[in-house]
Design a protein that fits this description.
Two copies of one chain form a homodimer.
Chain A (H helix, E strand, L loop, with lengths): L12 H8 L3 H9 L6 H14 L5 H8 L4 E6 L5 H14 L5 E6 L4 H13 L4 E5 L5 H8 L5 E4 L9 E4 L2 H14 L5 E5 L4 H16 L8 E3 L6 H14 L5 E4 L2 H14 L8 E3 L5 H5 L6 E4 L1 H16 L8 E3 L2 E4 L18
Helix pairs in contact in A: 1-2, 1-3, 5-13, 6-7, 8-9, 10-11
Chain A binds a DNA duplex (16 and 16 nucleotides) through helix 2 and helix 4.
DNA sequence: TTGTAGGCGTTATCAT
DNA sequence: ATGATAACGCCTACAA
């Protein structure tokens, strides 16, 4: 019986092979391991493919080969500009490689992460990128069961699932506080929004640094689960001043908050850095442009994405990683907003 | 001859069917048109699938059905925070639907866009999102040849490929300038970075508004191809003041530039808004938090992403769009930075 | 270096 | 409402 499906009219590999006068498998090899063909056939297949405008059918390829060229990436947020640069690094790293990236948004939910992980596993990705090191036991189990390389990004820690690229949020925060202490600040507030695990570790770094200096005071710590923003930075700062009016420095877990603090200082006519030092986190572009320029902890987000891809693709190709855990470090960018505490000439603000 | 491939050990639909005591195709139907099954079989397949932990093989599905559930999206930049919210809207819109989104980055290159478009076409996406309306002729041809619904986002214009969601950048800029004129500003500068087609149209709006008021002056227009940033905003503003020292207002094509201008005013002790009005574009979160708060043109980026998905999925399901072109409009957010020009009490800036 | 044969897991087609 | 069977287009395994 002759049941025919509607042929999509697409060019198949077999057609290319026929035109080139070779077998299908030879044509197939041309696209995957061209160096395995003789120069003559390679040229013939090439021109045949071009002539017919052949495009491989990825679904068929994936079905037959039992693998895909998809790299999955789980990130907690799309609007957080911190991730934008990571994504940028990822895309640049992918350039010229056969892999494509498939993003999924966990929305800071570990349950969502678990679910997406299972989804990804079913699709047999070539590699996987996950954010952070605080997966649930369930998620961790799924990750361990992955047959593909996995990179955890954004932070470093013990016991990688497979590979890791990041830095120590604890150390970064500790360094920021140490700097403020060295500048003569004593009443250093902590402002935190969206207390995800990495922000939590920054808080730990702050706490330990303050404890080491015997300057701990719970009144100095203001946090919220609300997403970060300049507005919330101003609000938290107002709360801080209400609870600890003698605050002489603020460490913000990210730059949006720091910007909000700067503006709140402007509104209250609190001189920065004379009366109030400000240090942010991430070193977004505007920090250096601010007036006064804002100190921050520079994190290598672009490189993180880029490196994650490098490690992943190398691992996919079967090359064992030189190091399983890559610490990209951080850099304290000291600017005007955290200058030493001392009397300074008053500054006016008009033409 | 018995060549056996390594079975991936995965649960196949056939296994589910066997356990449920039905044919494969019935099991298949359960996942696609469950209402076509009798209640009894439906329940049996359901529990069988759950018991075995069945996950469909998307590659096989795509191959057999000749279609995918992938929606492609071409965007020019990942780091530009304007797109972050669009993406966010897209992801939220996708929630609960079977579709997945595949992003590709054109990097503001029309050639890259062309290439990616061809790539996408070969993958037979269920739908496609492209940025803007200025595709090359080639790209346009590829778009026209798509068999799937297409949505152009970020701006509106005549002659949609298929559907459109956006707003008029020209009108938005025109409205901003009209507002500044109404506040008594006369020497209104234009600051533009990364002059993509939409920014270009904002410039057109500015020009026409100034022309209508007989206030045109080419010295007032400063642009650069460099990517936007607060730093570049300060730089462009400095250039503007050098060329037109009597400038009394600045319209920035985006908020980063506006922020940079504000800081530069701070540095030069130019009173805002007394001596200088500032209006940005996009109304990023920090604009309202700034001191003084910064006026901007609010654009509905989240809704744009969300709406694009709504339209697309409806079209994929075969529902004809109510409107092919959806104008989401904009809203002028008038804040302190563009208050009316008049003498104002000087403001100090210290505690 | 090249080719042969079959299978990858699902859905479309046609039939009951 | 349900089922038998043939594609879907490519790749792996093996052989030459």
């Amino acid at each position: 019986m002759e049941r025919k499906r509607i042929k999509a009219g697409k060019v198949r590999l077999a057609e290319v092979a026929k035109l080139a006068g070779v077998s299908t498998i030879t044509a197939s090899r041309f696209f995957r391991t061209p160096e395995a063909l003789s120069a003559g056939k390679r040229a013939r297949v090439d021109s045949a493919a071009k002539e017919l405008g052949y495009m491989p059918n990825l679904a068929a390829r994936a079905l037959a080969s039992q693998r895909t060229e998809v790299i999955g990436a789980l990130i907690p947020s799309l609007t957080n500009s911190v991730f934008a640069e990571v994504l940028s690094g990822i895309y640049d790293g992918l350039d010229g490689s056969p892999y494509i990236i498939q993003f999924a948004n966990t929305r800071y939910s570990t349950l969502q992460e678990e679910k997406l992980l299972r989804l990804f596993r079913a699709q047999k990705p070539a590699g996987l990128i996950v954010t952070g090191i605080n997966q649930t036991d369930e998620a961790r189990a799924v990750l361990e069961s992955m047959t593909c390389p996995v990179v955890q990004i954004m932070e470093t820690g013990p016991d990688p699932v497979d590979m890791m690229v990041g830095f120590s949020h604890y150390d970064a925060a500790f360094a920021a506080i140490t700097h403020l202490l060295a500048q003569g600040r004593r009443r250093i507030g902590f402002l935190g929004a969206r207390m995800d695990p990495r922000v939590q570790r920054r808080l730990d770094g702050y706490r330990d640094a303050m404890k080491a200096a015997a300057l701990s005071d719970p009144h100095l710590v203001i946090t919220t689960q609300a997403p970060t923003s300049a507005t919330i930075g101003g609000t938290l700062f107002a709360d801080l001043l209400a609870r600890a009016p003698d605050t002489d420095a603020v460490f913000c877990v990210n730059d949006d908050l720091a910007l909000g603090v700067l503006f709140e200082c402007e509104r209250r006519q609190i001189a920065v850095p004379e009366k109030m030092a400000i240090v942010g986190f991430n070193d977004l572009e505007f920090m250096a442009a601010a007036a006064p320029s804002l100190s921050s902890v520079r994190t290598n987000r672009y490189d993180m994405g880029r490196r994650a891809i490098t490690m992943l693709t190398a691992a996919i190709e079967g090359q064992p990683p030189e190091q399983r855990v890559v610490d990209l470090g951080f850099e304290l960018m000291v600017r005007q907003s955290s200058a030493a505490k001392r009397a300074a000439p008053p500054r006016g603000r008009r033409a």
